[in-house]
Amino acid sequence: MYHFIPDETDLKIMQVLQENAWLSAEQVGRKVNKSKSATAERIQKLLAHGYIRQVTALLNRQLLGKPVMMIALVRLKEHGSGIVAAFGEGMAMLPEVNVCLHLTGKYDFMLQLTMRSAEAYERFLAERLFPLPFVDKVHSSLVLNEMKLNMTLQLAD
Description:
- The structure is a single chain.
- This protein is an alpha+beta fold.
- The chain contains five helices and four strands; from the N terminus they run αααβαββαβ.
- It has a four-stranded antiparallel β-sheet with strand order 2-3-1-4.
- The longest helix has 13 residues, at 36-48.
- The model has no long low-confidence stretch (mean pLDDT 93).
């Protein structure tokens, strides 16, 4: 199988979809000067080759009753590849964890969590994080305000 590299039109399509994934292939095509069928074919190719990983909606957590966003920096006691992988996979399974990043530096992981309350976060720590035998330290921060919450990638250099 050949290695697919997106061309300039594919990059434009991805930029349009990042801004509004609700657009139809016809609407995207108009923005990039391509037909509906050519655009749909390109989108399918981008999906098939993994350039578009997921199409999702960004929900309003406050309106959905989860106004508390926490950042947890986690340091592990050990760093064997099995432990790091197990921790990451375990966090990925938890619905409260929106983001789990493996880091370099003083802490090994950064977790972003959305909760109903500070008490819910306290329960998360007590019931899900602290019982893990390889967790050494957790530093928690309450997010006061989302100054920028954007999942788009800059495609033009």
